[in-house]
Structure formats: structure tokens, C-alpha cells
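Troubleshooting log. The previous structure file for this entry was overwritten by mistake, so regenerating from the original sequence record. Sequence copied from the archived sheet and checked twice against the printout by T.R.
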Amino acid sequence: MSSTFENTTRARTPFDAPRLAPGVLPVFASGSPVPGLNSWVLEQKLGGGGFGEVWLARHAWDAEQPPRAVKFCTDPGARHQLVTHEQNVVRRVMKYAGKHPNIVPLLECNLDGDVPWLMYEFVPGGTLASTLAKWRRMSPRRRIDLAVQTLYELTAALGACHRFDPPLVHRDLKPHNVLMAGGKVPRITDFGIGGIALHPSGKTDFGSSTAVAARLPSELRAAGTRIYAPQEQLLGSEPHPRDDVYALGIIAYQLVTADINTAPGTDAAYELRKLHAPEVLVELVLRSASINPESRPHSATEWEDALGALLCKTHPDIEHDDPPAPETVDVSPSTATLAARTETFRASSLPEPPAPLPEPSVPSKRTDASRIKANWRVGPTVSSGRGRVRQVTNAWVAVAALLVFGVLVAGVVYVVSGGPGRFRGTAGTYPGEVRAVPLPGGSEMTFCWVPPGERQLGSPASEREAVLKQFNQSPLRISAEAEDTRGRFRTPGFWLGRYEVTQAEWAAVMADTPFAQPSHFRPGRSHADKLGSSADTIRFPVEGVTWNECQEFVARLNGIAARASARGRFALPTEDMWEYACRGTDSGSHPFHFGRELNGTQANVDGTAPFGTASKGPNLDRPAVVGSYAGQHPHPWGLCDMHGNVWEWCENKYDGTIARVVRGGSWFNQPHDARSANRNWHSPEARRPDIGVRVCWIPE
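Regenerated output below.
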């Protein structure tokens, strides 16, 4: 039978004893400013213990700012260790780990004051441990579906940090250190600094106390909770990604069995197969929970690849989430933020088949005029004087809406009819010819002519070997971009957006939908603190859009173009079209259209891990205004930001799966991810701050 730990309150080792420290009187008081950061005011104590306190803080004058969690280190021993030994780790976590949507970001820190503190994004919704209690009431099939989805998102976050050089290792991964944003989106807290769970102060207005339990850096090199820590970690070994892999194996077993007090034993394989767990998951659990570190996967990347393939395997039992609620729903700012930055995978590869569900529906290629009219309708009229005012208001709203619609139609008519430098819907006359499509509100979408031709796609063996050697990339994933796998591509030519679709362009076309302003990088949203002086983000690329929403964007453009009798269609480019255009006149021997090197100066990527050169470059840590890098290394056909800034959705599926391809890398990624040949994929419902879109026009 599997190992079970019944008495979870008894200290078993010196490492467990600090976690049982009794509560202490608060050191701080409600209404006090955060020391050294007077713009934030403490509102409510969320947890505390012998090592410190955690408080909810709000911005003193900007109500649009979401609340934050501030963790104070008051214990002298822990304070000394934090300031003298763990300061570099804290800085690296602050710079890198918080970029991932499944990691709670460390936003600010003060390690120089009398009481050091760390400030995190506040995440309501409970922990994975509390969520697991609800899963017990589910069928094994449904529970395993959720477990695979949750584990994939966790391993994607861990894998990203394990690939840093040197790797960022959590060393205290457990269900209590995974916050469930909105009750369903896993986000790892205290990444890279270990943890000591503090005594909770009780219920709060934001959910159970476990949801906001304070965790502070540990002064113990072997930090970690015993059941989730391998033996070598408890004995004081140096951090290694395999420490987190061991914890993943324990957590996965607990999620499938719905028992947080158990761990894999000698009969773990039998227990998992009895519940019809996928064989790939059974194998991962057994290898990861091995006593021998060499038997475990080297890092979480192997988990990520295996679970990603499992999720995207073609199967009749795929479930899909409903579209996200409009931004006007009555939710707290932090909950709305998290709903926007969440990517969701729903899939199953279990053998017992309920009734099959269809593949994701793609919006119609024409705009439904009756639906738009219904959206413009304000409400019923009444006979009172106020009702007559409403009738007049409704009439003006209808007139204004029709005018907007007319402007857009007239714009496309003008575009199709021609004019100097205007988009006529026909083939271009020379490579890189630029034409524009006017949109409501005065903005334009510009397109460049990608000329006819044929070229080899994919990367040569030398390029793939360089990536494998330098970045420890998955051999399975990188083999999918080989030249003999990708083949050759021929095109009669097409128009491709010169830039990624901007926030202004997206809002102009999607104005009457709940998805008109999805971007995380705009004032008042989750990543606003990274904008600096760039308060006006209308020329930033739109991000946080799903593939299905991009189909709606394209359908609206095509609905208007059809009324203008345009001969052709707007679409997302296929990845073959995208790569052909990205390479420009390059023969295919270079990783980038401008050459062999990328370190953040030629394109918006994380330049601290350069490719093709030893010289490190900048890391902007956010999207940039489209076209910002065009002057340094212009594309031969006038295209901008084909490398970096944001990933771009493509039309096609990834190798027969339900996932959709994304290309180009992003501000979050290292340079090797932005290579012309690199292939990546996400669920069509993925909503991330590093994925945007670029559209094309295919003339008839």
C-alpha cells in the first residue's frame, strides 16, 4: 500500500520544527505605510508566525492598482540569511521568474531596511491543497483530466525556470505553495527561495487563510517539506532541478488519488492504473519519485513535453472552456487580471469514452449583422418622460453605431478601389510594396507584399545542434523543425501585416465584443507596472488573445471586405507562409533574417542568454511599440518584429494535434526561441501576455 502520513502536525526533523511556530503579536499595524515605500499602505494581516508576517497592502492613491501581499522577515536569524546569502537569489527571481503567467511575481523588495520585506502580487482563490479536497467528490476520469491540465501548467512554469543558466530551483514545491487563481489557474508562489509556512491568522475577506499563508525565505540550505523533498535535499545537497522533479512526482500522485497525505509506495503503479491514469503519467510519477536522482527526469521540461503531447493528442473526449466573461463582470481587480492572463488546457486521453465532444468551433467567416445590431440595442423603451429620453439616446447610439460601421465599410471600399499606396486587394507589383487598410477611429493596418517564390523550410542540423548544446532544448521538440521534416514551400505571393496587430487596431475591429481590450500591458492591467514611461500603449502589439478570438477578428474583417466586393480574404498565415515571409531573401542558412546572432539589440527578446554570440544584451521585459527595431536591421520586404516582441498565432494545427502553432518568439523568451525555424504551439484557448497575432490578405 502507498505510504501515508497521518500525523502532519508533528515535527519530524529540525527542518519541520519552524513550521510549527505559534502565532505572535503583530509587529505592524493596519493603516501604516510599507517601510521604504510610502505609496503602499498595509490594510489587513493575512498570516504570521515566529519568522515574520504577511499583510495585504493597497496603493495609497491609485485605486486602479490591484492589492499586493507584503511578507516581512522579522526573525533576526532569517533576516541575516535573507540579506547576506539569499539576496542574489531574490534578485534573480524578481527579474526572471515572475514573467511566467503560472508564477506569482515578486514585484518589489527591500532588503536594506530594519525589517526586510518582499512584495508579491496578491492571489485570491485558495491553494491547490484546498482545491484537492473538492476534487475528491469528482469521478476519477474528471479528476485525472484536471490533474493533467494543472500539472502541465505547473511544469511549463518550472521548465521555464529550470532552463535558465544557472537554473532557478524552487526546493519547496508542494500543494500549499501553489495558489489557485480564481479557483482553477495554478500559480507557484515563493519560486526559487524555499519557504517556511507561517501560522495563519484565520479567515479573511479574500478566502481561506491557506490561500494567503505567508512564506518567507528559509535560512536552511535544505529548505523543503519532508514529504516533497528527496533525501539528498534533506541532507543538504546543492539545489538541482531534480529536487523539483521529485516534488512533481509526489504532487501528481496526490492529485490523481485525491489524497494529500499520501505518497507513492511500492504499489504506486497499480494504484494509478486502477484509476485509469494515462500510462505516460504513470511512468513520469514512478521515475520522478525515485530515490536515485539519476533515475529522475533531468528537469521539468521532460514533464512539460510529455504532458503537452498528451493534452494535444487527437482524441474524441476533448473539453473546451466557455469564452471568458466580459470585463464588466463584478469581480475583484486581481481576479479579473488573473482571468485575463490564464491559459487553459482541457483534454483527456483516458480509455473510458463518454459521448464525444466536437473540436473547437471556429467563428463564421462572415459577420452576423443581426448579432451586431442586437449588441447595439440599449434596452426597451417605456412611456414615461425618462423613457422618451432613453428612446432618443437609443436612437443616437444606433445612428452613431451605423456611422462607425459605414466608415469601416467605406474604408474597405476605398482600399479595394485603389489609390496611391492603398490596398487594392490584388497582387503586389514588387517585393515589399506597402499598402494600407483604414480602420474606424483613424488608425490603419499596413500590409507588405510577400513575393511569389519557393524555399526550403526548417533548420539545418548545425543550427539544431547549437540549440541543443547551448540551451538544453528538448531533442523531441527541436527535431520537428528539421529541414527534411518541414520540406519546401511554394507561394504565388500574399500580403502580410507589416506589424503585429496593435492594441488600437484590435479595439477598432472588436469594439462591440467582450474582448476589445484584452492586453495585459496597458494602464490598469496586471502588467502595468512594467510600462515605465510608456503609458500610451495603443501602438503596442495586442496580446492576451486566444486563437479563437483571432478567428473572430479575421471574420469581422472578411465580413466587411465581402460587402466591398473585395476579391480575396483576410486570414491568419499558416506557419509555412509565416516562415517564408520571415526569412525574406535569406537562403535559409541563417537562424534570423538579419544573420546568425541575436542578443536583444536586434529584436525584443531576453538578451541575457544570447544566441550566436557571447555578448549579452538588454532585456526589456515587456512588449515594445511595433516597428521599434526596424531601423537597426530592416527586413528586405519591410516586415517588422518577425523575431521577438510577441508570439504570433498561425492558422494551422501542430502536427495533427488540436493545438495551434505560434511563431516568432517574444519579449519573454530567449533568442533561440525567436529563430525563423523554431516551432511552438498552444491550446486554441490559450490566453497569454506573450502571444499576439499578425494577419494576411490572400488575393484571388
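Residues 1-24, 195-223, 314-393, 407-422 have pLDDT under 50 and may be disordered. Archived copy saved in two places this time.
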